[in-house]
Structure formats: structure tokens, C-alpha cells
Automatic annotation (TrEMBL):
The lineage of its organism: Bacteria, Pseudomonadati, Pseudomonadota, Gammaproteobacteria, Vibrionales. It is an enzyme of class 6 (ligase). Belongs to the class-I aminoacyl-tRNA synthetase family. CDD domains: TrpRS_core. GO terms for cellular component: cytosol. It catalyses: tRNA(Trp) + L-tryptophan + ATP = L-tryptophyl-tRNA(Trp) + AMP + diphosphate + H(+). The keyword Aminoacyl-tRNA synthetase applies. It holds the Pfam family tRNA-synt_1b. One of its GO terms (biological process) is tryptophanyl-tRNA aminoacylation. The keyword Kinase does not apply. Keywords: Aminoacyl-tRNA synthetase, ATP-binding, Ligase, Nucleotide-binding, Protein biosynthesis. SUPFAM superfamilies: Nucleotidylyl transferase. GO terms for molecular function: ATP binding; tryptophan-tRNA ligase activity. It comes from Paraphotobacterium marinum. This is Tryptophan--tRNA ligase.
């Protein structure tokens, strides 16, 4: 039996280069080795967009198109919609009764995101408890591995706490613990170098960006502010252009040579940006073309997502049935 992997994205906007290098590219490779399920997390998207549900609903098929455009194959990877799998919400409710509010508030990932989103005292209850929802997602599909960035490790830890607590309460190993599969690529910075690339913050190059949008974004990229003349030695540390070249340029030897040239002087920022622009245009042009074809065939996207969701729903229902039986809550049903 193949190791099971669960991964996914919030449906709050089209996916961007940070997603591509951090997860999408690896998912295309992982689907050949593992039993992979990808969850379009629209419910989680609502945890901080409850006042604007259209931001979520209108992006579900955008995310679906991004998945297929980069090469994720629905014949071997199950792609499903979180809100269309009722067992996930029911499992979330059961788990919420064995997790304290104080434990959720201590979760470093949640604390950081609450600060970044500037909720103040107006934290949506759903946002505070979304680690429990993630635990429901992971355990519903009995995922052994969960690909994450290192900032998400506290979420994996909390999931395994829930698993151990639940198994202890019912007296048998019903739920399965998981391990994090860390990305080999650090988070991609925004074009200005101030924060991570984020669709929410509007500082991202999306997979569907036009040629002009890519060029415009590259021109705005932060370099070395002290590199005032071409002949001056420049720094590559914190230089966003070189960070992107490291991440996306296929010729690592050429990138190494560019770094050395830039550091000793004689290489202008404009020239380096032109090289990056060509690199990103070559990468995104076929993805953009395929993505447009998919977006234009809305019914195909719906059909593929529906088929994957039906398959995932059956698996999650089996987990729910076992959980309810272990809690003694299947008195007059076969669930």
C-alpha cells in the first residue's frame, strides 16, 4: 500500500510562484510515488473571509485550474472540495471537545497569523480553531505524510496531539499520526523583499500573470540598494532577483557565474532582471496557456472536481464511521 499524502490550498485567490516552487512542483512529482489527496480548502478560506464569501467561492475553480495547468493528474491524484465533504466538519466538532482554547491560542502559527492579519480582539472563532479543522482533514484521509513549510510544523504537532488524545480516550488506535514532509525550498519573498509572497497582500506573481505583468513585477524587484553604479560590487544576500534566479533558473552554473560577476562589480541590476524576466516568461507561458484553456472549460473543471470529491467523501465517511463507533455514537445507525 502506498504512503498517503494530504496537501492543499485555501481557495482565496489564484495560486502564485510561491505556491509553485514551494508545493505545486513537488506535488507533480509526489503523485508518481504516493497516494496523494489535494484538498481545496474553501472552508478554511472562510475563516478570515466570512464577511466576503465571494472571495472564496469565485476562486475555487481558479485553484482547480492552477492544479491541472502545472501537471497534477486527476487520474492519479484525488482533488476534492473541503465544503462538499460533510465528514470533515463533523470530525472537527468531535475533536474540538478535546482541545482547549488556551492550547489553540499558544499555537505559534496561529499567533503569528493573528498578528499579521491584525485581528486585534476580533478574532473569528473559526480562525482560532482552524488547526482542529486541519487535524480533521489529515486524519479523515489517514495521511501519513503532510507536505508543509517549517512555519506549519506547529499544526502537525497539534494534529498529532489530537490523535494521541483521542486514541487515549477511546482506548484504541483509531486515528493515525502523521509526519511533516518539509519543503526543500524556503518561502519565496514578495517582489519588494519586505514580506513573503502572498496573494492576500497583492505582492505575488500568479501562475496566470500576463507577459506584461511578469515584466512589470520583475522591474519592481528589490535588489541591493547600495549598488548604485554598474561597476560597484553588489550584494546577493537579501537581493530578491537572485533569490528568484536560485529558485527558478534551470542553469545553476549560469546563476553561480552571475552571482560572482555581480559581487565583484560590472554587472547591472537591469541586466540581471532581464535574465530573470526571460526565465519566468519561459516557465509561465505554457502554464498560462493551459490555464486559460481550462478556465474556458468550466464544466470540465466542475466534473473533475466533483469526481475527486465523491471519491474523497467515501474515504472520509469511513473514517467518520469508525470514529463515531469508537465514541459509542452509532446507536441506531450504521454510521
Amino acid at each position: 500500500m502506498k504512503t498517503k499524502i494530504l496537501t492543499g490550498d485555501r481557495a482565496t485567490g489564484a495560486l502564485h510562484l510561491g505556491h509553485y516552487i514551494g508545493s505545486l512542483k513537488s506535488r507533480v512529482e509526489l503523485q508518481q510515488q504516493y497516494d496523494q489527496t489535494i484538498l481545496i480548502a474553501d472552508l478554511q478560506g472562510l475563516t478570515d473571509n466570512g464577511h466576503n464569501p465571494k472571495k472564496v467561492s469565485e476562486n475555487i475553480l481558479n485553484v482547480m485550474a492552477d492544479y491541472l495547468a502545472v501537471g497534477i493528474d486527476p487520474e492519479i491524484t484525488t482533488i476534492c472540495l473541503q465544503s462538499a465533504i460533510p465528514a470533515l466538519s463533523e470530525l472537527t466538532m468531535y475533536y474540538s471537545n478535546i482541545v482547549t482554547v488556551s492550547r489553540l491560542e499558544r499555537n505559534p502559527t496561529v499567533k503569528s497569523e493573528i498578528k499579521n492579519k491584525k485581528f486585534g480582539e476580533s478574532i473569528p472563532a473559526g480562525f482560532l480553531t482552524y488547526p482542529i479543522s486541519q487535524a480533521a482533514d489529515i486524519t479523515a484521509f489517514k495521511a501519513n505524510l503532510v507536505p508543509v513549510g517549517d512555519d506549519q510544523l506547529p499544526m502537525i504537532e497539534q494534529t498529532n496531539e489530537i490523535v494521541r488524545k483521542f486514541n487515549s480516550i477511546v482506548g484504541e488506535d483509531i486515528l493515525v499520526e502523521c509526519k511533516a514532509l518539509l519543503s526543500s525550498v524556503s518561502r519565496l519573498p514578495s517582489v519588494d523583499g519586505k514580506t513573503k509572497m502572498s496573494k492576500t497582500l497583492g505582492n505575488a506573481i500568479t501562475l496566470g500573470s500576463s507577459s506584461k505583468e511578469i515584466t512589470s513585477a520583475v522591474k519592481k524587484m528589490f535588489t541591493d540598494p547600495n549598488h548604485l553604479r554598474i561597476e560597484d560590487p553588489g550584494q546577493i544576500e537579501g537581493n530578491v532577483v537572485f533569490t528568484y534566479l536560485d529558485a527558478f533558473h534551470p542553469d545553476k552554473a549560469q546563476v553561480k557565474g552571475l552571482k560572482e560577476h555581480y559581487q565583484r562589480g560590472g554587472l547591472g541590476d537591469g541586466q540581471v532582471k532581464k535574465i530573470l524576466d526571460i526565465c519566468l516568461q519561459d516557465l509561465l507561458e505554457p502554464i498560462r496557456t493551459k490555464r486559460k484553456e481550462l478556465i474556458d472549460d468550466r464544466q470540465y473543471l466542475i466534473d473533475v472536481l466533483k469526481a475527486g470529491t465523491e471519491k474523497a467523501n467515501q474515504e472520509a465517511e469511513e473514517t467518520l464511521k469508525t470514529v463515531k463507533a469508537s465514541l459509542g455514537l452509532n446507536i441506531w445507525t450504521d454510521r
